[in-house]
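User: Last request for today: this protein with pyridoxal-5'-phosphate, please.
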Amino acid sequence: MKKEKRQALHFDSKAVYCPPDEATKSIAPPIIMSSSFQYDKEIFQRIVDGARKEVNIYGRCGNPTEYQFEEQMMMIEGADACLATASGMAAISVSLLGLLKSGDHIVCDWTTYSSTHEMLDHRITDYNINTSFVDTADIEAVRSAIQPNTKVIYFETIANPTMKVAAIKPLVELAHEHDIVLVCDNTFASPYVMRPLELGVDIVVESATKFIGGHSDVIGGTICMKSDKLPADFLEQIRWNTMVKLGAPIAPFNAWLLSRGIQTLSVRLERQCQTAMKLATHFERHPQISKVWYPGLESHPQYEVARKQMPKFGAMLTFEVKDADAALTVLDNLDLGCFSASLGGVRTTTQIPALMAFLDIPKEQRLEMGIKDGMIRVSTGLEDADDLIADFDTALDKI
Ligand SMILES: Cc1ncc(COP(=O)(O)O)c(C=O)c1O
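Assistant: Here's the final one, the structure of the complex with pyridoxal-5'-phosphate:
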C-alpha cells in the first residue's frame, strides 16, 4: 500500500496494517535479531558515501524490526518521523539532549513523571541546562517563565499522577511565538486517546512500555515529530548524534512486541476508558474517598479543556482516601487489581505515587506537585468493571 493511502486510513486500519515481509511474504513481521549485518563492496561504498538508515550497519545504529515499529508509530501518532528507543526515559533524554546544549533553558510543568523531574532538576543541570518548573495549565505562568535562552517547553498531556490536562493550543501559540520547541509526554493518554502532533505540538514522546505494548511484558519508548520549527531530518540527526552515541536504541524483540501491541491498542483502550469512567464515578460517591481525579468527571479542574482536546478521557485515574495512612491497606487487600509499579497493561494496576514512583522527591516538593500521601493511582485493565468495583469496595471496607 502506498504511504499516502496508509496515512489516509482511519486509526484502527493504520494500527493493524503491516506490509508483508518482502523476502518471505509473511503477514506478521519477522524479528531480525542480528546485531550485525554483512557488508559487500557496494554496501561498504554506500556507507563510506554517507548512507545510514538505508543500509543495515550494526544493531545499535538501527535494525529492520525497529524501523517497522517506527513506521507503525508514525502512522498512529500522525507523525512525519519517529525514533524508537530502549525505554520511555530514553525517549525523553534523547529528545531533550538532542534539542538542548549548555546554557539552554527549559520551562517544564511541575508535575511530570518522577524520573523526568529528577533528570531536569538534578542531572541535566550538571551540563548547564536549567529548568523553571511551572503549572502549564496556567498560560501566564508559562509566559512569565520564558527566558531569552528558553529552547523547550515540556509537559505531560495527562500528568502523572495528578491527571492535570493543560490546554495545548495556547501552549503551541506561546511556544511558537517565541521560537520554542513544544515537547510533550503522551504516555498516560496513548495515541488512541490523544494525538498532540495534530494539535501543533512539535515532538511527542511515549513510554511505549505502557498502553502501546499493553501487556506489561516489554520496555520501550518513542519520539515522534511533526514540526515546521525543526529541520525535517531532525530525528535522523539525533538518531546518529545522540541516540546511537548514548546507546539508547530499542532491542529488536521489544520493537516486535510493541508492533504487536499497537494492533489492539484501540480495542483495549476503548474498554479501558469505559471502565475508568465507571470506577471514577463510583469512587466519587464512596464514603472513604475524599477526592477523585479523572479528566472525564465534571469535577476535574480541566474537564472543559479535556472535553475539547481529547476524544477519550483515558484509562488512568487517581483517588485520595480520607485516611492517608490507609492507602496501603486498600492496595494490599485488592485481589483482582494488581498492586505494582507501571501502568497501561491488560491487568488493572494500582500504586501509591507518593511512596512509590515519587519516593525520592522530598515531601515538600511532592506536595507542590500536587502529590498527596493518600493518593492511589489506578490504571484500568480489561477485567469486568463490576468485578473491579467489588474488589475495590471490599478493600476499602478494610479501612
Ligand atoms: C508519564 C511517564 N513517562 C515516562 C515514563 C518512563 O517510561 P519507561 O519506564 O518506559 O522508561 C513513565 C514510567 O512510568 C511514565 O509514567
